[in-house]
Amino acid sequence: MSPGERQREIIRILLSRRFETMKNLAREIGASERTIRRDVMELTADYPLITVPGRYGGVKLADDYHPFMNSLSREEEELLKLAATTFDEERAAGFLGMLVKYGRKPA
User: Residue 100's domain spans which residues?
Assistant: First the structure.
């Protein structure tokens, strides 16, 4: 895995989980903890990453960083909600979950 691919995977994991230990990242990605630490340091130039020291420390994304929120307009959300009514219950739930992830923040 190239450094760029490894760093994209770190960000993908953190976007999903918001926090992870260096040890778990290293194990999951298949790199050393030292390599993961170096990648995290490089990523801090472009992402709001916070390193948490200590035994249970790791790396996390800043609480207010949600790059996918507010990606859809109100009209797009309404169109997608309408489309979800044509799906079975399981697919509709997954589809509507995307609205939570990419849609406007609830007031």
Answer: 68-107
Domain tally, the chain: 2
Q: What is the pLDDT of residues 40-75, one digit of tens each?
A: 999 999 999 999 998 888 999 998 887 776 667 788
Q: How far apart are CA 58 and CA 28, in angstroms?
A: 14
Give yes or no for a contact between 43 and 10, defined as CB atoms under 8 angstroms apart.
Answer: yes
Q: Are residues 22 and 42 in the same domain?
A: yes
The SS3 of residue 55 is coil
Residues 40 and 51: beta-carbon distance below 8 Å: yes
CA dihedral sign of residues 4, 59, 36, 21: negative
29 CB-near residues (< 8 Å, 6+ apart): 1, 6, 9, 10, 36
Q: Quick one: DSSP state of residue 67? A: T
73 and 54, same structural domain? no
Question: How far apart (Å, rounded) are the C-alpha atoms in residues 12 and 67?
Answer: 12
